Amino acid sequence: MTDSPREVTLLLQNWCRGDQAALDKLIPLVYDQLHRLAHIYMVRERPGHTLQTSALVNEAYLRLIDAGRVEWKDRVHFFAISANVMRRILVEFARSRGSRKRGGDAVKVEFDEAFVPAPRRDAVMIALDEVLDELAKIDPREAKVVELRFFGGLSEKETAEVVGVTDRTVRQDWNHAKVWLMDALKRGAQQ
User: Fold this and answer.
1) 148: which residues sit within 8 A by CB, 6+ positions away?
2) For residues 112 and 26, what is the distance between their CA atoms, to the nearest angstrom?
3) φ, ψ dihedrals at 82, nearest 5°
4) Whole domain around residue 26: which residue ranges?
5) Three-class SS string for 114-146?
6) Is this prediction's pTM over 0.85?
7) Is the CA virtual torsion 146, 148, 149, 155 positive or negative?
């Protein structure tokens, strides 16, 4: 079986209609991409993180299966939802870790899509999640672009396809959102 976007889309739609055999065929086709998404997340986590890439993929897979019926548009939509699920898992994990550790003052954070220093990663993940939720209230499309690009590792073209805008609009939203997020993170760190 080839991993064509059309084939994955058809399998997703068949799965959505209740075809369990479609799910069995789908998993091997999307596993590598899910693993790549999880790896992107885990590279940004602190060294020695107790949640491993495969565990993140497995947890995301279980949540996707348990999510009930989703009207999957296509392969890109599936990976966009997967990116969101992985983001939520890591934020929950960071929050649970933080609740066990308690204490400390506000953490000064900076938004950088390439690297977040290891000692502050849990706090940064939580802070970024909170300001991203704020951005979603102001500009849901920009927040979606950040989630897809930063957390999901999608290209401008893939993000444009999911959001339903042009590559240029994605680029503009991405640039504006990064500035807004950095400002919001700095404001939060000063409080």
Assistant:
1) 80, 83, 154, 158, 159, 162, 163
2) 34
3) -60, -40
4) 5-190
5) CCCCHHHHHHHHHHHHHHHHHHHHHCHHHHHHH
6) no
7) negative
Cα–Cα separations (whole angstroms), residue 18 to 1, 14, 64, 92? 21, 7, 14, 30
Residue from 158, 163, 159 nearest 141 by CA: 163
Report how many domains make up the chain.
1
pLDDT digits (tens, 9 = 90+) for 162-190: 888 999 999 999 999 999 998 888 887 66
Alpha-carbon span 64 to 58, nearest angstrom: 10
pLDDT tens column, 110-150: 444 444 444 455 677 788 888 999 999 999 999 989 888 88
